[in-house]
Amino acid sequence: MTTVYIREQGAMVRKRGERLVISRQGEVIDEFPLNKVDQVVLMGNVQITTQAMVNLAQRQMDVVFLSSFGKFRLRLEADNSGHVLLRQRQLREKDKGSLSLPVAQAIVDAKIHNQRVLLQRQARRLDGGGGGDGPVYVRDPGLFERSLRGMLQMQRQAQHTDNLDSLRGYEGKAAAYYFGAIRSMLHQGWGFRKRDYYPPPDPFNALLSFAYSLLLKDVRAAVLLVGLDVTMGFLHEVHPGRPSLALDMMEEWRPLIGDALCLELVNRGSLRPNEFVRTGNPRRPVELGEAGVERVLQAYGNRLSSRMHHPLAGPGGQTTLQKAIILQARRMARVIDGRETVYEPMRAR
User: What pTM does this model have?
Assistant: First the structure.
């Protein structure tokens, strides 16, 4: 998928022939052939003409509106009535409740597994000298090992629980161990003590939140693409305005895409704590800034374009991470409509 991010504040997006044209104050600043674009993301104060919106919707193109710092605002969605029977089945399964616990357990099990794999990869990198004098290092190896053991214990307990509330509790405890281990690998300049996102109080939390916002928009797009109701989840409770199913399906990808991306940016020194903007605004005390946003978007696009094995990818089984997210949404749809009996999340090897 080719994603066009439009971040120039005050820009206007128009359709001109078979091209998408971005201008500001009457001057064209960029343009793209429409047949090469799959997703358009408008960030902040960016306008789009009605003609362009209608044309993009008719092409079933994903159009997403984010704030300038990555918070989801809305999505332009074409007519999705062709999937009404699947959504009806989804609602029935949600009401019955028979799918909720097994699907949620599968997701939590894969998430904790993927978190542990990511931590072990980081440890091997550091043990092999990859940390050295760089910005990431194991400050407390004892804490790191205790975190891995604690996560494994929570994973085992989650596998055997018989209710969603305790499952969420085990997931939360595993996450506390996980982010404790990540803290042990970060320089104190990042100010990271725990995962805290309302609002992010330090540069690393701000980086995580931005990466997760990008990931959520793509998981949400995949859920809608296959015809599921994005609000009817299994692990996350249903609340008005909450994309519960997208949040469910995002969990298995957080370590593989969001967390791995953030650690990669830190490991390589692509982002440093002093480059973040201290706003003085209690609602958003720390932001990436223009340069930081550009680097994250570039790295995120590169990561989604990287290839991996997926059993549903066809001959050879190789596909991009972007397409693998869609394949996982299709897996979920098959479980909901009864074609599959078990949901199989993506698990790192």
Answer: 0.91
